């Protein structure tokens, strides 16, 4: 931060780095070897829908971009109890790279069409043989990741979340502020 920003008490807003989503496939290998978690093949982008024909067309274009090619993964659009929209991609669990490419395309398309202010997060769920699940969550506005591990109704496994953070701390830009580790209840795939 420069002198002028310090005097005015303004900080430059942090820029997201959507390319960080391409680090998830290598992090998936680390999670499998270190903790026994594997990707479920599902991924999603959460955003606040905007009113109007331009947003509706952009959302249609995104669904068509990802889901209408031959052999493309199924794409669904759902709405949660909090009014956020989830665009969900159900792909092959062995193709985390393809899934992350699809999530990147969704974020980028919304961003390029002027709807970046509504982007909240992207999530890639993981599960182990014992049935534990967590979502590796990318905070769009922060450009960082955090794990979210719900275990029941409004209950989360903080020990698992901290373990995942510690294992992936060198591979992904992890969110250092635990208060930003939002509880994303009823997220698709969890």
Task: Give the mean pLDDT.
Answer: 90
Q: Describe the sheet with the most strands.
A: 7 strands, antiparallel
Number of domains: 1
Give the helix tally: 5
Question: What value does the Rg take, in angstroms?
Answer: 17 Å
Structural class: alpha+beta
Q: What fraction of residues sit in β-strands?
A: 15-25%
Helix content percent band: 25-40%
What is the β-strand count? Answer: 9
Low-pLDDT runs: none
Shape, per Cα inertia axes: globular
Span of the ends, CA to CA:
39 Å
Order of helices and strands: HHEEHEEHEEEEEH
Oligomer: single chain
Main attributes of the structure:
7-stranded antiparallel β-sheet; two-stranded antiparallel ribbon; 190 residues; PspAB-like; globular; alpha+beta; single chain
Word description of this protein:
This protein is an alpha+beta fold and 190 residues long. It has one domain (25-180). It is 32% helix and 24% strand. The chain has helices spanning 3-7, 24-35, 53-67, 96-112, 158-168; strands at 38-39, 42-47, 75-79, 85-90, 119-127, 133-139, 144-148, 150-152, 155-156. The strands form two sheets. Strands 1, 2, 3, 4, 5, 6 and 7 form a seven-stranded antiparallel sheet that branches. A hairpin with a 4-residue loop joins strand 6 (133-139) and strand 7. Helix 3 (53-67) packs antiparallel against helix 4 (96-112). The protein starts with a helix and ends in a 22-residue tail after the last helix. InterPro entries: PspAB-like.
